[in-house]
Amino acid sequence: MIKGKEILGRNIVAISTGEKVDSVRDVVFDHQGNQVLAFLVDEGGWFRAAKAVPFERVRSIGEHAIMIASADDVTSSRDDGRLADALESKTSLLGMTLLTTDGQNLGKIADVYFDENTGRVVGYEATGGLFADLSSGRAFIPAPSDVQIGADAAIVPLSVAAAMKENPGGLKGAIKTAGDAVTGAVHHTGETVTGAVQSAGEAVKDTYQSAASSVKETAQNASEAVTERQQEYVIGKTSNTEIVAADGTVIVHEGEVVTPLHAEVAEWHGKLPALAAAVTGASVSTSLGQATESLTSKMTAGFRDLLNETRTRQKHYVVGKTAGQDIELENGLFIAHKGDTITAAQAEAAEKAGKLAALTAAATGGAVADAYDDARTRVQEGYAEIREATADRQKAYVTGKVAGTNVVSDSGEVIVSRGVTIGAHHAERAEATGSLAALTAAATAGAVTGAGQDDMEDNTASPHRIEDTLGRRVRHDIRAPGGSLLAAQGQIVNTDIAARAQTLGLEQPLIEATLGEEVQGSNAAAANLLDRAKSWFSDRKEETEQAMRQREQEAHEQRIRSALGRPVTRVILAPDDSIILNTGEIITNKAVDAARAGNVLDILLDSVSKEDPSIDPLATRPTETGQAALESQQKPDAES
After folding, report:
1. 579-596 burial by CB neighbour count: b if 16+ within 10 A, else e?
2. What's CA 526's distance to the chain center, in Å?
3. Of the ranges 169-173, 206-210, 611-615, which one carries the lowest mean pLDDT score?
4. Rounded Cα distance, 292 and 219, in Å
5. What end-to-end distance do the CA atoms of the chain give, in Å?
6. Do strands 11-14 and 65-68 pair parallel, antiparallel, or not at all (unpaired)?
7. Cα 352 from chain centroid?
8. Measured on CA atoms in the order 329, 332, 335, 336, is the torsion positive or negative?
């Protein structure tokens, strides 16, 4: 299971070449199929189609890269109708409200969880709502098989809300639930306790508001500082890629040196991080090229020296060793036969014939064979001693211990029964029947069982099992060794999650995340409140960014409305050099549409005359009468 936001920016690598093809810009979902449709790598623009990797062409999703067969697996919206329809709909799950069919608000979608193998959406991370966790303000909402995605809300069955409630099974769960109910009743009956709860509630509220305000102010200051540092960093560096704004305007061309104006425009369009990444890549590429050239030169010189040194050492090495195989020349002559002791003359002849490496391998093979024979002899001689010593130690070990299982020989003879204390005669009989290893295992099992019983009596062992986690809510994310999620914070444990935990060896982390003791005290409460404040600010940040984008769009439209009817101060040319407007001509709606289609609308708006000319309205009156003019009004051509 993977979070959608965690995959953004992850590199896409082709298996056929080992090269990076691109990186993930966004995740495209098929809302009707509740499925990941593709990973978007290029959002496209006015004159180019969007590009993406369809999910069915993904070979694997790793912790650091997404693997595809080749660069040909990248498709465009022109060639993929489903991708084109999904992008055209412009429906975004992030920020959408989750509602049940009976109108319960489950919160707003902050992220989407999907299965990395099938692409199926398995759940949503929601902020606020009925089941938001107190410490983080977020909850895991399981994705049903049927979900209706609309323009303003996603509608899920009532069963989803029921599945969100903790339901610990078994007698233990029932006893705990009853105990919680009794405890709640006692709390509600005490006026003193009620007053304390109210006072605590007011204190928590004040602390939360203070923490939220502090976090918001700190984050704002940090954001401004980061922006200034980024602007200082990019100025004067070369961009290794083209930086394009959302409206298609090119901010910086590939290979262009970044100026302060570029940095300001990039920040205005929200592209300053992308510009910083572009100039970083160029710097790294230049440095890498210089380092590679220097390293290649040094390696070439060093390799020559090493080659000469290696030949001399090889000749010294082979002299006196036994050849493990024949060394034959192309003309059929032999430099050395298998079993020969290699001489200095043979080493010189091998070097001249280009067979020194083969002679070295033959000498090594002979040495290895000699060493192996010697080692095998030593092992065989020592094995009998080890076996005898091992048998004696095993018999000494089992004597006096309790058998954890029945021990039966291959012939069916019962050596010792479960629960019986093993004596010396049991050990001797087990050795005679070849059952000593089984007796040792039974004694070990009995020792472990006894130790486990002692631990339980001392109340030092964990009282929980993996079955006890079923129906419980997970308090924090649990990740597998590869980085994928076993369970997300707020998710209710089911049999599939418990089975996967056993397969991956994560039973104890799952038990601790669901049944572990909660941290008590004011420090823990303050930390939880701070986390929730951070979560709240993150949500507000997303809403603020969306509002800013909307205001920018409204400001842009206002500039267009203000420009209509005013003259231009320069010639406005289309991409094909045809004239849209000449100097002094009035900006019309038709001119705006033509400039937008030619991607020169910004030039048009920057060329609007701001002067208020002093003109005689009658002198500039058009010859044509307006369509909405009064019929009795005299026509211009009839005036005296």
Report:
1. ebbeeeeebeeebbebbb
2. 29
3. 169-173
4. 41
5. 84
6. parallel
7. 57
8. positive
Count CB-CB contacts under 10 A for residue 256. 14
Closest CA to 564 of 591, 524, 598: 591
Q: How many CA atoms lie within 13 A of 597 on its CB side?
A: 10
pLDDT digits (tens, 9 = 90+) for 6-56: 889 899 999 998 889 899 988 988 877 788 989 998 887 766 788 899 999
Q: Dihedral sign for Cα 501, 506, 508, 511, please.
A: negative
Q: Is 593 in a helix, a strand, or coil?
A: helix
SS3 423: coil
Long-range contacts: 48-53, Cβ < 8 Å, 24+?
Answer: 49/76, 49/77, 49/78, 50/76, 50/77, 50/83, 50/87, 51/22, 51/75, 51/76, 51/77, 52/28, 52/76, 52/77, 52/80, 52/83, 53/12
Looking at 171-185, 356-370, 514-528, which range is the least confident one?
Answer: 171-185
Residues 6+ apart with CB under 8 A from 110: 94, 124, 125, 126, 127, 138, 539
**Running DSSP on this structure, what letter comes out for residue 635?**
P
Helices 424-432 and 436-457 cross at an angle (nearest 10°) of 140
Tracing tokens 């002067």 back to the chain, one arrives at 611
Query: For position 146, what pLDDT does the model report?
Result: 76
The DSSP result for 75-125, as a single string, is: EETTT-HHHHHHHHHT---TTPEEEETT--EEEEEEEEEE-TTT-BEEEEE
Q: Assign 537 a pLDDT band (cuts: 50, 70, 90).
A: confident
List Cβ neighbours of 433 (8 Å cut-off, separation of 6 or more).
Answer: 409, 410, 411, 413, 415
For 152-187, write each residue's pLDDT tens digit.
788 888 888 777 776 554 434 444 444 454 345 444
pTM above 0.70, yes or no: no
Task: Using alpha carbons, list the distances in angstroms from residue 348 to 325, 357, 359.
Answer: 18, 12, 11
For residue 415, what are the CA distances in angstroms to 64, 399, 438?
Answer: 56, 13, 10
Q: With the C-alpha atoms ordered 82, 88, 89, 94, is the resulting torsion angle positive or negative?
A: positive
